[in-house]
Amino acid sequence: MVTRDHLKPRDCCAIKMTTPPPVFSSLTECAQGSQVNHERYKGLVDSFQAKYGEKPKYLVRAPGRVNLIGEHIDYSGYGVLPMALEQDITTAFVTNDSGEICLANVSDSYSELKCKVADIKISGHNWYEYFFCGLKGIVEHFSIDSPIGMKVLLDGNIPPSAGLSSSSALVCCAALATVVANNVPSPTKKELAEICAKCERYIGTEGGGMDQSISFMAEPGVAKMIEFNPIRCSDVKLPSSAAIVVSNTLVLANKAAFANYNERVVECRIAAQVIAKKKGLKWQDIRKLGQLMEALQLPLEKMVIVVAECLHGEAYMRNEVCKFLEVSDEDLASGSMSPSTLHMQKFELHKRAAHVYSESLRVIQFKKACENPSVTMEELGKLMNESHASCRDLYECSCPELDGLAVLCEKSGSCGTRLTGAGWGGCAISLVPKDNVDSFMQRISESFYQAHPVRAKQISTSLFATSPGGGASVCKLE
Ligand code: NG1
Question: Which one of 164, 263, 309, 453 is separated from 207 by 20 to 30 angstroms, measured CA to CA?
Answer without folding.
Answer: 309
